[in-house]
Amino acid sequence: MDATKESLIAEIEKRVSDKILEQSNADLLIKLIKNAGTLDEAINIAALGTTYKRTGLHFDKRLEKMGETIKYFKKNEKLSFHTDDSKPTHKLIIGDNYEALQNLLIQYKGMIDVIYIDPPYGKDSMGEFAATNYNNAITRDNLLSMLYPRLTLAKQLLSDSGVIFCSIDDKNQAYVKCLFDEVMGEKCFLGQFKWNKVAKSPSLTDSIRMKYEYVLAYKKKDKVYLFGKPSYNNMGPLWHNPNKQQTLIFKEKSVIIPNSFKKGMYSDKYKVELLDDIDIENGVNKNAFSIKACSAWGQNKIDEYINQGNQFVVKKSLSTFYTVKNDLSNSFIAPSDLISKEECGVQTNTEASDEFIQLGLSFDYPKPTSLISYLVNMVTYIKKDAFILDFFAGSGTTGHAVLELNRREEKDGDLLNDITPEGNRTFILCQLNEKTDTTPNGIAYDVTSKRLKRIMTGECYDGTKDFEWAKKNKPYGGNLDVYEIESVSNFEWTKCKTPFDVIDETLYGKEKFATIKEKIDWVCGNFDKTQKYVENDEEWLKRTEGEE
Q1: Which of 82, 324, 486, 541 has its CA 20 to 30 A from that of 76?
Q2: Neighbours of 63 (CB within 10 A)
Q3: Residue from 133, 100, 154, 108 nearest 482 by CA
Q4: For the segment 149-171, what is each residue's pLDDT rounded down to a tens digit?
Q5: What is the pLDDT of residues 501-524, one digit of tens each?
Q6: CB 82: neighbour CB atoms within 10 A?
Q7: Type and span of the H or E element at 269
Q8: What does the domain layout of the chain look like in residue ranges?
């Protein structure tokens, strides 16, 4: 039997093991393939095994093909800057996000904690509204087939406890959710948020006034806790005690709050210490004292739980004890599926545009910084050294949101203040450099990089500071490495131009290799995947403009 027919049969059998095809259907297809008169006929028969009945959606998936060109990062020294080596070094990658994701996998596979994307919706799927919102001609089928391989790569980048958020409008939400169900797995669906994008309802229309857009949320694998509001109890909030001197704890290293004990029949005296008023004399804290409180457990039970790593707090003015285990999962109320200004402090589109104008830049319909801050904080409230990726960076809002979170300090007597210092999160942004009427040099050059430069250093690349934001805000500081995606033939052997010469391993978190053999082994072992391209992807790139 022809070797190609054997490979077709092997693929059919694999689909049986993957539970895509029923065995009886596969047996029939295999029989037909074996008896096919020509190879073309066999291929067409095998194709029937790739179209199967299922719930979800159907679209033409682009196929990955191997090429002869290696894609790699090259640092743009002119746009990169460092202000403080003690702070994180963030990344902006200029180029096709498919190629950027391939290269990121070399260093960050399984390491990204949060991905946020706002993909281009396309005017063909959005009707007349897109004529003012997006300047592109991407169809829904193109949207889905463009997203599919990129989500597949992005999933590999997520850590096992990672979360991906996707902003999407109401017309595409159902289709994009089906795509996420397929790539991420329906069991990994965390929920769907409604974002109140306008302060008031839009003016009357012929049909419906739209107030909301949507944000899909999926986890990678592990159980995920999303942190919403701090917990409250019927005695009042402990998280926002205006006078920390009145907050008492059992241990200096208090981690968390609350889940109150049920009142019981036992009354004991417990020794506690003031968190911010430790006055040691002869080895004893002079401010330690006894307080009477009701608890369902006696002192021995309390001590047992403390030894297991649990922490207890009590308010001086209240005779109520609280406890929570180390995972913090019970310390917060789960976030609501409605993201509004009233409930979450998230800006509207109008406020986001006003904020952007203060930067002295032009970009239509940027997402609010506070929206992405809110989403990222759900996942990284405790993990302050998280990696956050946005591979449809647009104006760079995700970078701005991460910098704002890093600066934010806990206020109003938050007990987590002592264990949650200024954040150390790192953002990675990818942006194709589309050229538009307002961005003649491309979005990445004229908007994304300029925004990051201005908010991180307080000045433009030319050294000027004549924009309103700089007058009202302190620069965030930090460091930015800007990469562009370059190409080199895999059979290029011209001296100083081979892949082993032009690829810089330090841009991938590696120290300089001591020998050329080490460099060759590393390049050959990692960059073969960057030679893959998506069929017809170049055509999509020509037609796609305007993201976020």
Answers
A1: 541
A2: 11
A3: 100
A4: 899 999 999 999 999 999 998 88
A5: 999 999 999 999 999 999 999 999
A6: 11
A7: strand 266-274
A8: 3-53, 69-227+334-543, 232-324
